[in-house]
Each structure stands twice: as C-alpha cells, then as structure tokens.
C-alpha cells in the first residue's frame, strides 16, 4: 500500500491555496468528519445520540456555553443537537441544517469497512461521507472557527444536526424539534442538503441550489369482484379492469409546465448545454410546449422536472390458479409538482383510469412544503460565494425530484435552500450506495464555500 502512503503528500501540491481553509481549520473539519463517519448511525440499527454527544463535547471545549447547546430527541437513541452562536440580533437567525443518520451499509457489500473513515487516492470513503456528514462536519468546524475568530454576525447562527431524515418516521429530528422546541429552530431561512456542485469529465458545470422539491402521493388502485370458477369466465374480470386502467395510465402524461424555479433552471441550463438541446432548453424557459415535449423525451430527469409523474410500482391480485380473481390492486407512486394539489392529482387519475370499477384511495401523503421563494439575498450570496471560488461557474436553482427535511421547515414558513458547494461527478453520485465517497479537495473547498456563504448571509451589508 506504498502508493497510498504517498497520496496525502502529493495532494498538498494539487490543492490550491486560495480555495482552501488554513491547515488547522482543515484538520479540525477532517477530525469531526472522521468521528461522525465512524459512529454507526444507520437509520434502522444505529443511533444518532453518540454523534450529538460527540459534537456537544467539542462545542463545550471550544467555549460554547451549556445554555446554547441542546441535545434531545424523540427517543433516547435518536437525539438531535442544536447550537446557537449569538449575533447582534439585528436580523432574524439563519438555520444551518444537516442530518446525522445514514442509510444502512453492509460490510460485505462494500470494498472497505463502511464505518471506518478512509482517505485513498484523493477521496474520503465511508457511509455518510456524502449524505450528509460532510455538511454536518463543516457546519460545526466553521461555527467553531467563527467563534475563535470573534466573528460578529448581524443574526444568530443556529446549527441543527438532526436524526432520521432517511425514512422519516416518528423520530424525525426536524419534525420533532418543530413540534417540541419550535423556538430553537426559528429562523428567517435555512440552508440544508439537496444541492451540490456538478462535475462532468473533471470540469465544474454548475453549483446547484435546491429551492423546492416535489412531494409524494401513493395511491392504491383496487378492483373487487365476486369471482367464480375459471372454467366459466365472464367479461367482468378484476384483473382486466385493473390492467386496462394501468395501461391508460402508462400512456398518459400530466401536462408540462414550468414554475419560477424551473424556468430559471432551464434558462441557465440552456447556456451550459450545447447544440439543439441548448436551443430547446431556452425555448422551454420561454414556455414553448413543443420544446417541452422534445426536452422531456431527451431525459427522464427533465421530464420529471416539467410535470407531475405517476407510475405503477406494485401489483397484487387473484387467489387461486383456477379461480376468477376477486381482487386486483396496484400501488401508484406519484411525484407531484409543488403547485399541483392532491385533489387535482386524484381527480386526474380517476379520469385517466376511466373505469368506475377501479377504486382509488390515498395510502400515504408526505408533509408538503411550498417552494421557497427565490430570495434575491440568498441567490446573490450564493452567486458571490461561488464566483469567488470558481469564477464563471453558474449557480443553478433546482427543484429536487426526491424529498428532504426541508419540507417540514417550508411547511411552517421557514424557506429552505439546499446548497453545499461540494463538487462531485454527476454520473457517479454514491449516496445510499456502495463505496460512498467525497473528494478530498471537494470537501475542503466546500468548507471554504460554506464558511464564506454563511458569513455573507449573516452580514448582508457586506454584499454591497
Ligand atoms: Zn441526506
């Protein structure tokens, strides 16, 4: 393993001084990151409390008073940590959020131990290195640095490291804190996961900021029938009713449209893309339905950005090989644009199914938050912090197809923006997968980016 022994040495030449924090700050962030990754905080088998306690100990050692540190959660093993760094109070606080639970990882699935922090060939490996312990570690390292440097923000800076983002459930830290300790999280706006830097072929393409997200509805389509002997079939068959409805659903597409966020996304994307795609993306931003059709056909992600989608994901039916089915049922999973209502989606599905034998009911509805407004102060600050580190790299506002804890905050009126500045190869995102990793340089550049961004947002006058 001689090769690896030299890697850190070689790396110091590759890292550019201006984009990186001072050596001591890098070391601190790396130490916190390592400590967090090595605590097994798997969503189902692990605990977040040791993460919260380890961070609390570091904060106390850095001089944060006990009264500004909160550790607690829905159950003893699912604790959250909230810490407040006091500003002048001229402005409402800013909330910096990251989750400390991770998706489970099995040693046998990985090339290395997922709960041993490993630096190799320019990457940090381990479960949570991307999702979401990098941001958690950086929030804490930077907060300790602000305190050491005597930074005087115009607003309180609150960092919340929370439990059970993965899979949600009753001990979700953001939900629990909002219900039990609302004042701890009260803020003018929040920065969270959900937006990162995209690279392709080693080149930085865009720094993404997630402004809104789709929400999830699951419907159960169900047909019941009196059944009978299969030797005497009749046209009225539960499986055929269901199959017909699903076939019609498969051919159906919800209307395509843009909103405030996706319009800007397509407009900026048109400047990044090349050829006829660039032209079509620009037309989409101007509202052309024809161009939307072409762009949707180019990429499932663009299709999902332009419309609500509903897709059959599970089937059940029949009870014997020689009996007419008494039941046929399907789960239909919908990813809904923030501006489309539950009622609209359900009534549309009923029209598409076009069969009153097919009943439809909502199985689960996730908390839905509105899109965060495109706040000029936040977008300008992200633009400035991006341009300082990576001149010419555009900031791309995004609507995420998946969901984050930001929805709980948006639902109570705290606009939430997903922004990290950690650049990664857009074709090799390993969140939730095997051999999860984060580039060493990407991590430390993100540390600088978030340090600058939070400083700008906590002293907005510095923007002008
Ligand atoms: Zn996450």
Description of the molecule:
The protein has 15 helices and 19 strands. It is of the alpha/beta class and 464 residues long. It has two domains: 2-194 and 404-463, Zn peptidases (Aminopeptidase, 3-Layer(aba) Sandwich); 215-365, Alpha-Beta Plaits, CATH 3.30.70.360. The strands form five sheets. The protein has a six-stranded mixed β-sheet with strand order 1-2-6-3-7-17, sandwiched between helices. Strands 16-9-8-18 form a four-stranded mixed β-sheet. The protein starts with a helix and ends in a 6-residue tail after the last helix. Bound molecules: zinc ion. Zinc ion binds at residues 99, 131-132, 165, 193.
Mean pLDDT metric: 93
Q: What gap, in angstroms, lies between the N and C termini?
A: 51 Å
E-strand count? 19
Strand arrangement across the biggest beta sheet: 1-2-6-3-7-17
- Biggest sheet: strands, sense, closure? 6 strands, mixed
Tell me, what is the CATH class of the largest domain? Alpha Beta
Secondary structure: elements and pairs:
Elements: H1 2-14, H2 23-38, H3 49-61, E1 69-73, E2 79-85, E3 94-99, E4 118-120, E5 123-125, H4 133-149, E6 157-162, H5 173-180, H6 182-185, E7 189-192, E8 197-200, E9 203-213, E10 215-224, E11 228-229, H7 238-251, H8 260-272, H9 275-285, H10 289-298, H11 300-306, E12 309-317, E13 323-324, E14 327-336, H12 342-353, E15 359-365, H13 376-389, E16 395-400, H14 406-411, E17 416-418, E18 423-425, E19 437-439, H15 440-458
Parallel strand pairs: 3-6, 3-7, 7-17, 8-18, 9-16
Antiparallel strand pairs: 1-2, 2-6, 4-5, 5-19, 8-9, 10-14, 10-15, 11-13, 12-14
Helix pairs in contact: 2-4, 4-15, 8-9, 9-10, 10-11, 13-15
This protein binds zinc ion.
Zinc ion binds at residues 99, 131-132, 165, 193.
